[in-house]
Q: What sequence folds into this?
């Protein structure tokens, strides 16, 4: 395929996703709560860029960055790193390191809310938008969720109306440095509008799904939806 034709296809896929999920996205709690005069978002501090109080209910701000894992931190050299994106899509792909770095890179600063009640604010990240990866694989009309898998055996599910938000990234850089191994380097996902367990560290596969399915913590009693400003921690 010509490069132009390829780009056209990606733009088209992105427009299609936007049309399909725009309305659903606008109705998600981390955007909509409080705006309809109902369900006021809970928390404290000045409002963030989405109109939510900076510190969600029950959270304490820390300047340290605690490490949470399953007792195992995989070591993936860049020449061995691969990301598979497949499932309910028209164009499954496998990216190697250079393929990933050749995609549009965005810088963004966002907050990180862990369900164990600490929040780290204003982390500068560099990475690739989930939305751009989704446009590359062109999800089928039937896709509603993704399961994200880590090299450590972890898995977590995210609905597409959450995953496609512009601040959901697959990051390789944090605080101006390559993402440290203990925080999920070479690449992890971040979901600033949801509790941080929804972002898989050491990400190796994104599987598009035709229906919701639980990941590691969701099967063990964590919330399916994980909305920080609703104190939505456990199910
Ligand atoms: N692959 C993988 N991703 C993961 C986890 C994990 O154990 N394995 N822990 C999750 C949890 S519970 C949290 S709070 C954050 C912690 O990220 P951090 O260790 O960088 O603070 O990563 C999430 N992503
Ligand atoms: Mo967590």
A:
């Amino acid at each position: 395929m010509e490069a132009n034709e390829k780009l056209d296809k990606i733009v088209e896929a992105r427009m299609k996703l936007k049309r399909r999920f725009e309305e659903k996205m606008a109705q998600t709690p981390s955007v909509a709560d409080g705006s309809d005069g109902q369900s006021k978002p809970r928390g404290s501090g000045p409002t963030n860029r989405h109109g939510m109080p900076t510190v969600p209910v029950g959270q304490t701000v820390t300047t340290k960055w605690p490490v949470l894992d399953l007792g195992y931190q995989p070591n993936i050299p860049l020449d061995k790193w691969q990301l598979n994106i497949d499932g309910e899509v028209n164009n499954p792909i496998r990216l190697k390191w250079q393929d990933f770095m050749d995609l549009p890179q965005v810088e963004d600063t966002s907050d990180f809310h862990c369900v164990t009640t600490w929040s780290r604010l204003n982390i500068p990240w560099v990475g690739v938008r989930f939305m751009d990866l989704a446009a590359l694989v062109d999800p089928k009309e039937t896709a509603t969720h993704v399961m994200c898998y880590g090299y450590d055996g972890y898995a977590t599910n995210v609905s597409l109306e959450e995953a496609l938000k512009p601040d959901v990234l697959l990051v390789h850089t944090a605080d101006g440095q390559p993402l440290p191994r203990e925080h999920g380097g070479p690449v992890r996902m971040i979901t600033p509008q949801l509790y941080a367990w929804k972002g898989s560290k050491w990400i190796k596969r994104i599987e598009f799904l035709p229906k919701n399915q639980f990941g590691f913590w969701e099967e063990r009693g964590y919330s399916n939806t994980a909305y920080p400003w609703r104190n939505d921690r456990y199910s």
Q: What stands out?
A: The domain at 3-230 is CATH 3.90.420.10 (Sulfite Oxidase; Chain A, domain 2). The longest strand covers residues 118-129. The chain is about 20% helix and 30% strand.
